[in-house]
Specification:
By secondary structure, the chain is of the alpha/beta class. It folds into 3 domains: 122 residues, 3-Layer(aba) Sandwich (Rossmann fold), CATH 3.40.50; 243 residues, pyruvate-formate lyase- activating enzyme (Alpha-Beta Horseshoe); 56 residues, Nucleic acid-binding proteins (OB fold (Dihydrolipoamide Acetyltransferase, E2P)). 33% of the residues lie in helices and 22% in strands. The strands form 5 sheets. Strands 2-1-3-4-5-6 form a 6-stranded parallel β-sheet, with helices on both faces. A hairpin with a 3-residue loop joins β18 and β19. The radius of gyration is 22 Å and the shape is globular. The termini are far apart. The structure holds S-adenosyl-L-homocysteine, iron/sulfur cluster and FE3-S4 cluster. FE3-S4 cluster (F3S) binds next to α1 and α6.
Length: 445
C-alpha cells in the first residue's frame, strides 16, 4: 500500500489547477489522496509568494500541522511559488521540510515523494517541464463537478516592477488550442457546465502553432481561442485574468457574438496615476486603460467589470492616491480587490524605498474600500427586478433552505431552493442587494 497524501492549496487559481494536476499524477501512481492533514503520511503545501503575508503562511501552517500531529510527523513537502523561489533555502528555514518541488516540476511529484520517503534525505526539484509532459487532470480531482479551471497559459513575461510572479512562474507558455478544445469538449460530455480559462494573463495567449484555431476569426490568438471554445457548446465560459495592455476590443466583439462567453471581465488597473503606472512598469497609461474600459462598458451586452488595485506603492503621494480614487469612480467596478503594496525581494521595486507608512497604507486601504462599497452598493441595487442566469453550485453557507451559485456576470447569487437543483442553470429574479451578493427567487416558467 502506497502512502496517503494531503495537498493543501494556497494562492491563486493557477495553484488550484496545479494541485488538481498533481493529484491526478499521484493517484495514477497508486497514492491515496486524503482530505485532511490529520493522519496523512505526506502533507504537501502548494504555496503562494505574491505578498509577504501569503508567503509566510506556509510556515505557520507547517507549525500548526506538526503541533496537531504531536510527534507523529508526516513527510512535509512544499510545492508552488515559494518552493520555486526559495529552493533549497527552505530546508534551512524549517528542518521539518523534506521535499521542495518547483512550479514546473509538478508531474515528477510521485517519484520525488518516493525518493524523499525511501532515502529519508531532503529532495528538491525546481527544474522545468520536460517534453511530453502534458496538462492532464482527471475529473475526480477537480474542485467542483460543474465548474472546471482550464489553464491556457502559464508564466508571465511582463515583469511589473513590484511582482514576483515572473520569477516564480517563469516565461509565458501557451497551451496549444487543440489540447484546450479537447479538454473543454470532454468536460462538456462529463456534465461540466462552466469552464474558466485561466492564466496570469489569458489575453497574452500565443501558442506556438495555430492548430485548432483554423477557421475561427479574431484579431489575436486569444480572441480566436474564445470563439473556438464558444463553438464547443460549453454552457458558460469565463476567463481570467486579462492584462490591460493586451486587451483588444475584439474580445468584446467575441463576447457579443457568443452567448456562452460570459459577461464578465477582470481587468486589473493597479493604479490611476500615470506616474505610478510607469514606476510599476505596467506598460499603459490611465487613458489607455480607460479606453479599454470604454469598449467593455459600451458593449450591447452588460459586461461586469472587476479589478485589482495596489495602494501605497513606493512614493505614492496622496494626490496620486486621489487619482486612483477618481479612476475607480470612473470605472464603476462590479467588484474590486485592494492590496497594500508588499515589497518582494528581488523585484525591481524592492530597490525603491517602501516609504508609504503602514498607517498611511491602512488609511488609504479603508478609504478606497468604503468608496468602492458605496459605488458597488448602487450597482448591486440596480440588479433588483432583473433576471440573471445562475449555475447552482450548492447550499448557501448562511442558510440551508437557500442555495448559492454565480451569475454569468460572476456575482454570488443566493435564493430559496434545494439540493436537487445543484448543477443546473436557473433563472433568478433579483429581489434584494447585499454588499457582495444578490438575493432573489427562481423565476417560475
Ligand atoms: N497578472 C495579473 C495579476 C496577478 S497577481 C495582472 O497583471 O493583472 C494578482 C494581484 O496581486 C495583482 O493584480 C496585484 O494587484 C497584486 N499584487 C501583485 N504583487 C503585489 C505586491 N508586491 N504587493 C501587493 N500586491 C501585489
Ligand atoms: Fe505580475 Fe505584472 Fe505579470 Fe501580472 S502582469 S503576473 S502583475 S508581472
Ligand atoms: Fe501566488 Fe504564485 Fe499565484 S505567487 S498568486 S500562487 S502564481
Amino acid at each position: 500500500m502506497k502512502a496517503s497524501i494531503y495537498i493543501e492549496t494556497l494562492g491563486c487559481q493557477m495553484n488550484v489547477a496545479d494541485s488538481e494536476r498533481a493529484s491526478t499524477k499521484l493517484r495514477e501512481a497508486g497514492y491515496e489522496l486524503v482530505g485532511s492533514s490529520e493522519s496523512a503520511d505526506v502533507v504537501i503545501f502548494n504555496t503562494c509568494s505574491v505578498r509577504a503575508r501569503a508567503s509566510q503562511k506556509v510556515f505557520n501552517r507547517i507549525g500548526e500541522v506538526r503541533k496537531a500531529r504531536n510527534g507523529n510527523e508526516p513527510t512535509i513537502g512544499v510545492m508552488g511559488c515559494v518552493a520555486q523561489l526559495e529552493g533549497s533555502a527552505l530546508f534551512d528555514h524549517s528542518s521539518s521540510i523534506n521535499l521542495v518541488v518547483g512550479t514546473t516540476a509538478t508531474d515528477r511529484l510521485p517519484s520525488l515523494i518516493e525518493s524523499a520517503r525511501e532515502s529519508q534525505r531532503q529532495i528538491i526539484d525546481v527544474g522545468g517541464r520536460v517534453d511530453g509532459e502534458l496538462w492532464k487532470v482527471s475529473n475526480v480531482e477537480r474542485h467542483s463537478p460543474y465548474v472546471a479551471f482550464v489553464p491556457i497559459i502559464e508564466g508571465c513575461n511582463k515583469f511589473c516592477s513590484y511582482c514576483i510572479v515572473p520569477f516564480s512562474r517563469g516565461r509565458e507558455q501557451s497551451r496549444v488550442a487543440t489540447e484546450i478544445l479537447d479538454e473543454v469538449r470532454s468536460l462538456r460530455e462529463d456534465g461540466y457546465k462552466e469552464v474558466h480559462l485561466i492564466g496570469q494573463n489569458v489575453n497574452s495567449y500565443r501558442p506556438l502553432t495555430s492548430a485548432g484555431l483554423e477557421g475561427f476569426s479574431g484579431t489575436t490568438p486569444f480572441s480566436k481561442l474564445l470563439r473556438a471554445v464558444a463553438a464547443t457548446g460549453m454552457n458558460r465560459i469565463k476567463f481570467t485574468t486579462s492584462f490591460p495592455r493586451d486587451f483588444h476590443p475584439d474580445i468584446v466583439a467575441a463576447i457579443e457574438e457568443n452567448k456562452n462567453l460570459c459577461n464578465w471581465v477582470h481587468l486589473p488597473a493597479q493604479s490611476g496615476s500615470d506616474r505610478v503606472l510607469r514606476a510599476m512598469r505596467r506598460g499603459y497609461k490611465r487613458e489607455d486603460y480607460l479606453r479599454r474600459v470604454d469598449a467593455i462598458k459600451s458593449s450591447r451586452r452588460r459586461i461586469a467589470l472587476t479589478s485589482d488595485i495596489i495602494i501605497g506603492f513606493p512614493g505614492e503621494t496622496s494626490e496620486e492616491f486621489e487619482e486612483t480614487i477618481s479612476l475607480v469612480a470612473q470605472c464603476q467596478y462590479d467588484g474590486l480587490y485592494i492590496f497594500k503594496y508588499s515589497e518582494r525581494p528581488g523585484t525591481p521595486a524592492s530597490g525603491l524605498a517602501d516609504n508609504v507608512s503602514n498607517r498611511e497604507k491602512s488609511s488609504r486601504f479603508s478609504t478606497l474600500e468604503i468608496f468602492q462599497k458605496n459605488l458597488q452598493g448602487v450597482i448591486y441595487k440596480s440588479y433588483i427586478g432583473r433576471e440573471v442566469n445562475v449555475l447552482v453550485e450548492g447550499e448557501s453557507a448562511k442558510s440551508n433552505s437557500d442555495m448559492t451559485g454565480h451569475s454569468t456576470c460572476h456575482k454570488v447569487i443566493n435564493f430559496p431552493g434545494d439540493m436537487t437543483m445543484v448543477g443546473q442553470e436557473v433563472s433568478v429574479t433579483i429581489t434584494e442587494a447585499k454588499a457582495n451578493s444578490l438575493y432573489g427567487v427562481i423565476k417560475k416558467n
